[in-house]
Amino acid sequence: MTQMTLDQQKIRAASDLHPTPEVNFVYGTAGFRMRADMLDSVLFKVGILAALRSYKLNGATIGVMITASHNPEEDNGAKLVDPRGEMLEQAWEVYATELANARDADSILKAVDSIVAQTGITFDKGANVIYGYDTRPSCASLVKALEDGLNAAGAKPTNFGLKSTPQLHYLVRCINTAGTNDAYGEPTEEGYYIKLSEAFKTLMKGKPTLSPITVDCANGVGAPKLADFLKYIDHDVWAANIVNDDINTKGKLNYNAGADYVKTQQKAPLGATLAPGERYCSFDGDADRLVYYYADEAGVFHLLDGDKIAGLAAMFIMDLVKSAGVDSINVGVVQTAYANGSSTQYLTKQCQVPVSCVNTGVKHLHHEAEKYDVGVYFEANGHGTVLFSPEALNTIKTTESKTPAQNTALKQLRALTELINQTVGDALSDMLMVEVILAHRNWTCQEWDQAYTDLPNRLVKVVVANRYIFKTTNAERTVVEPEGLQAELDAIVSKYNNGRSFVRASGTEDAVRVYAEAATRTETDYLAIAVAQLVYDRGGGIGSLPSI
Ligand code: G16
């Protein structure tokens, strides 16, 4: 039943059940994220906000994903998904923050009124919100708080249950595009598996069968979802061994496992013993990030991160576009400041691909990638995907082939647009894309890795009294506050060969991140720790710093 206005009494009564603690909430890089025991009121208000967003968009379905992705198990969070499966429009992040910080029923109603007035919301089309959650023990009670918010605001809620983040994004887009020319797929989990598996089989046809890959699922939602996906693929076509699939033992989620651990520690996760020549990859806790790795003959660990995936994908798509005779389609790559200097050099100089650099957070990369016909975007941490513009999709769909080779390439390109989850970074879909490319190239991980050599790099987390005093500009490569810090940082960096370093407040953890790269491992370690010390001193550091 639709309603013409909000029921203030209902919101008031429900808000009393979800008191707001004295915490400064911020809708950050990936929504709200912090210790789960602080989040009850936030989820209640996310429910209200998701309803308002849907009312604003004439009842289009909005998604809410309850997850804290790579964060430790005791954290949780929520992010909103807009109708085409993309991240919440940035202007609304401000409303989300305002509402989350409204401390009592009067302030909540005032914030709601102000959002309604500012955005010109009408209520006659109703509101529809779907939601899903990851494997965290805190999800059950947070779902309840979310439902209270949705019900209080008069939305029609649909619980999609345990989902990976990219699955929820997929579902939102499918629901909103159903019955249109732009229909994205069947709005069910099964529909997602069928779409991906059919495209994968088309792309693998006639290609050498790869040896089974070992997939570390961080003891998160990726494990049961990958196991489900495997039911749609014949073992002879492709096989995967899942490790770190324990979603029931408390404390295991992301613990010494998963994409974030492998990327930041630059070593294999617990439970994976690397055999030379074999392929390994890690998902993160909500299965939206992916990194690959392998051991060389000497048993030395090598990481193939988001930068390497972007290079692999961009080159493959450029070749395919050419073979398909649609080379009017331009390909571009979007990175962040965390991209290894060597990767940017490789893409711009060797591959001659345009590269843009934007702020951390897939929402920023996604928007920038939309400017290309085919926009390949990946953060170094393995979060990313490939976007095909509507024009590019149309060209790929309607071009008629003149030769059998062109026909095959066109078919493969079409299948690739189906295989890639274009709503958001998706570990499963990205992994299948990498597997396809390796099969087409007949490459091992080691051969893929030969494209360029990463500069040694290191990420350090510094806990300070208030991370928000660190403000940046220039796609986060320059720190503007605290004043004078950049000059001190520059002075340190200038002492190192090929040195580069920057600092920024994390949007998902209570810490300032320090990134450093330099010509050698030793120089990198010294540079990272020197800059971390600087941040610690200027920011009122808490606890101890990592050592060299
Ligand atoms: C989230 C975002 C990513 C971002 C990462 C770290 O990933 O979606 O875009 O790179 O957090 O962000 P920050 O450095 O601001 O903490 P995930 O996988 O945790 O959702």
TrEMBL record:
Names of required cofactors: Mg(2+)
Listed InterPro entries: A-D-PHexomutase_a/b/a-I, A-D-PHexomutase_a/b/a-I/II/III, A-D-PHexomutase_C, A-D-PHexomutase_C_sf, A-D-PHexomutase_CS, AMG1_II, AMG1_III, PAGM
EC annotation from Swiss-Prot or TrEMBL: 5.4.2.3
Pathway in which the depicted protein is active: Nucleotide-sugar biosynthesis; UDP-N-acetyl-alpha-D-glucosamine biosynthesis; N-acetyl-alpha-D-glucosamine 1-phosphate from alpha-D-glucosamine 6-phosphate (route I): step 2/2
Domain of life: Eukaryota
Details of cofactor binding: Binds 1 Mg(2+) ion per subunit.
Domain Phosphoacetylglucosamine mutase AMG1: 198-291, 305-443
Binding positions for substrate per the UniProt entry: E379, A380, N381, R504, A505, S506, G507, T508, R513
Keyword Magnesium assigned: yes
Keywords per UniProt: Carbohydrate metabolism, Isomerase, Magnesium, Metal-binding, Phosphoprotein
Active site residues according to the UniProt entry: S69
Example GO molecular function: phosphoacetylglucosamine mutase activity
Binding site for Mg(2+): S69, D284, D286, D288
GO-annotated biological processes: carbohydrate metabolic process; UDP-N-acetylglucosamine biosynthetic process
Residue ranges occupied by any Alpha-D-phosphohexomutase C-terminal domain in the UniProt entry: 460-532
Extent of the signal sequence: none
Residues in Alpha-D-phosphohexomutase alpha/beta/alpha domain copies: 56-91, 107-178
Reaction catalysed by this enzyme: N-acetyl-alpha-D-glucosamine 1-phosphate = N-acetyl-D-glucosamine 6-phosphate
Annotated family: Belongs to the phosphohexose mutase family.
Function statement: Catalyzes the conversion of GlcNAc-6-P into GlcNAc-1-P during the synthesis of uridine diphosphate/UDP-GlcNAc, which is a biosynthetic precursor of chitin and also supplies the amino sugars for N-linked oligosaccharides of glycoproteins.
Protein name from the UniProt record: Phosphoacetylglucosamine mutase
Organism annotation: Mortierella isabellina
